[in-house]
């Protein structure tokens, strides 16, 4: 048996919520790594991390960090990606970027490996990982679209606080403790750290994720709308989204309405399609109270679907409840999956 | 000035979450009461309650309790209503029932006073208070329907735990404390006390409110669908609902998609209609991050609407975010409003 090819991999944002999950998955999945570089901001540089039993010291990310790197997995915010991803590419690395920096660029494939893996072959050095709430939705809907056609999607999300980072999770727990002890609640991070006002998330719901656009939709909602069309290769697809932040740390849930191109289908047809779908697990038995919840999906790779119902009025309409761990399939796992496709199909070289 | 007419009023379920709110509102609004009877199960009978500075001893509800009562406000569960509401009517009382026992009965008006007050005149002794999640939605949508026509509603709810009663709120807080202290979580009430399985609600979301029907929708979802058509007097109206329980105590929020009968309308047309609507407060300024949340709507009578957006694809489509205190407008306040209409319009007698 020939020796397996190995790669030099860098994680940018290695100490963040997603970066930590990426490191763990690379280890768990035995990704063929020669050398792993852990890169971060100056603030976290110098930290010691463990990988495969060895200590790695976190370094401050800079252009030169990417010398000799084959694959760079970015998850340190859009501005870092905009600055350093081109530097990584210039030095011969292929970048899988987990921020929104390049997602809508014409030359950048936006990929969910179960949905459009072949788009990876077209990369010019950067491949974008979609928004967490988009990934789980398209993973659940693409097999249905392939089988029966979908022309309209209306989604309302139930999104976890970890999507806003580790500090937001700490804020949720601190606020929750203060609330339960009858203390005053301090809000400094959510809904959006850089926005003007902050509201409590503990025992509350915030109908704002990311900043508002001029059309009244938030940037998160527009990400779901635009990214879904790009990943599905269907600009004519109607997509509407309402994105809401809720007081739990992990897993996004989504209430999704779809209109198929065809009439005459039943819940069991949707079930059959989802049961055969890669990376999707059907959990749908109302009489036994079987359905996914944020807690049941936590720490799992797959996208879980339940509550499939036929609309009572529109013969082409169906409703679904889609849940997945936003840090895994929604971020770290999808990123590593893209890296796996790159290496396994020999698509690393442009 | 002639002496104001006063009435003998009974609250059935007086020690429950809604019963307590009803008592407070009757006091705050100076409802013209001669004598107030507080009725409950045997378990709570004998408790002392205060009303207008006087002590009232809670009595066990029985058929004879309603002798001499003019208005009986029921909020003690469907089985109590089914048993005792007819007894109250037999003794001359008019019943306002806050359970689902009679809502879909042909002879029972189902009323939101801002929407269909005139239906109260048709009562045969019982008037039903709609489900909490229905009330706030129809209060927000009826003025829009009157102005522009609505033919389709798709709603996803974000519902508070207090809709399942005081014990469910205690469970939420106890689970939250245990979770934050790293202890094992005990689930005995939610999603539905009488159902087979129970799941944690703390730091979670449960896509089940009330039991499942054969069509895969929950009873809560079917309540929203059927009650909305009845209150709107529009059996042809398309309504679909997905109802989700979330970890906060008070106020339901709803992500609502509507399709109007007409094209060519703008967000400002919807704003204008909502600004002029009774019992509705528009809170919609995205650039200033103004929108209602469960916490901002708590302890308020009105229905709050924000996040009004025009659908990006369907020229007749709009999205809204509707929030209201589920124990007030969703229950106690709507109940007292019905009683007010009964007395003020002289509709007590059949």
TrEMBL record, chains A, B:
Its EC number is 1.2.1.11. Keywords: Amino-acid biosynthesis, Diaminopimelate biosynthesis, Lysine biosynthesis, Methionine biosynthesis, NADP, Oxidoreductase, Threonine biosynthesis. Residues 8-123 form the Semialdehyde dehydrogenase NAD-binding domain. It comes from the Bacteria. GO terms for molecular function: aspartate-semialdehyde dehydrogenase activity; NAD binding; NADP binding; protein dimerization activity. Gene3D superfamilies: Dihydrodipicolinate Reductase, domain 2, NAD(P)-binding Rossmann-like Domain. NADP(+) binds at residues 15-18, 43-44, 162-163, 326. It catalyses: L-aspartate 4-semialdehyde + phosphate + NADP(+) = 4-phospho-L-aspartate + NADPH + H(+). The active site is at 132 (acyl-thioester intermediate), 252 (proton acceptor). One of its GO terms (biological process) is diaminopimelate biosynthetic process. It is an enzyme of class 1 (oxidoreductase). Phosphate binds at residue 103. Belongs to the aspartate-semialdehyde dehydrogenase family. Homodimer. PANTHER family: ASPARTATE-SEMIALDEHYDE DEHYDROGENASE, DEHYDROGENASE, PUTATIVE-RELATED. This is Aspartate-semialdehyde dehydrogenase. The gene is asd.
